[in-house]
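Follow-up to my earlier ticket, as requested here are the two runs.
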Amino acid sequence: MKYSLLDNKQQKILEIALELFAKEGYNAVPTTMIAEQAGVSEALIFRHFKSKKGLLDALYEQCGEKVEAIAKSVLEESNPTATIRKAINWVFIVDEKDYNYWRLQYKLKWEDSYYNPQQMQPIVHKVTWAFEQLGYEQPELEAQLLEKTLDSVMISILRDGKEAHLPLREFLLKKYAL
């Protein structure tokens, strides 16, 4: 589905569903609640998205697009030091207006049909390459550790906001002499 081609009502349905799914969880939100808050009929949701799962699938696709957009700058980097710097910085440059996409992404990690452990692997591989280029003794483990650390930092940012975690960014940049 091309999201730039959505009409206003479809976009409103997605916005409300994203907000509710990110806050309450997919299973806790009935389509009647989404319809009521979006100011549309429940039938319109089903007309556009076929089912509640279809609505979640559309949001999941949008989440994937957000991940790809951020990953692109890391994956296209040819300088190993800049690669690691960009990998560290990405959690701190996520736009606050996109936090609900990321909250939903984290909630879906617990849903078997949406859990995609391979999603971040291209970044982990690229960061492994960077650590190899810089002569780290165990570049693969270093990249995995950094990915797990950044994952935890992102969860904290989504809960508490970015400002409280900026010292961690500075610490990581200093740790890797960036």
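Run two:
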Amino acid sequence: MFLGFKHIIEELPPGDGDLDPPKDIDGRPLTAGVCFNWDIDQDFRLEVVQEQDAFWKRLQQHHGVRLTEGKTSEDVVNWLKKPKLENQILYFFCHAESRSLDRGGPDSSAIELTGGKQTTLRYFKLKAPADRFKLAGSPLVFINGCQSASMSPLFYDGWVPYFLAKGARGVMGPVWDIPAVFASEWAIRLFNRLVEGPPIGEAMLWLRREFLLKHNNLLGLAYSLYCDGETRIHPALR
């Protein structure tokens, strides 16, 4: 049995961020910024982006979540430049490319949102430097990179320190290529669990086991958590 199905696994790499970030994400109200690559539905003839968009709108309608939506990398850059960005969750459903072994190093790793443009970490650092524009909401950042042939753990060598230095409480995401359908379903089920109040480490362990026992699916092991596993939404939304 893999350790990931028995234990809560978390990793907080050294960086310039808060060494003891707050564990509780204030749910009064919960504020979230979500940015989807809408091209994924069109390119793969799916409805996974539509389903996630509808999920977040239901949270907004029924649980008072304050929702900010984006489509492009420039939308994300503009969020990260806001001096008082209060979003406690930043969620990106996108393609992601690892290039840490290339000449450009970790800064050449990139995400791709709507429009087909790959935007490197170097560009984010240039437009929204880590030593400026601190994230007031100390967000949990979820980079849900899918359908990404060159995705690997090296992707996080640069993105995790960058977001921690900007004040994020942690980062999570897959460390290898994940099908869009699974990535979408994982995110919906995870957030659906988190709004009930359990710690994120416990929620991820529960979800891995659910996919294994009910669907014989090991892909939950792809998701890594770079923050305190006791992080939770409190008070819960339901």
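The only thing I checked on run two: The two ends are 33 Å apart (CA to CA). Let me know what else you need.
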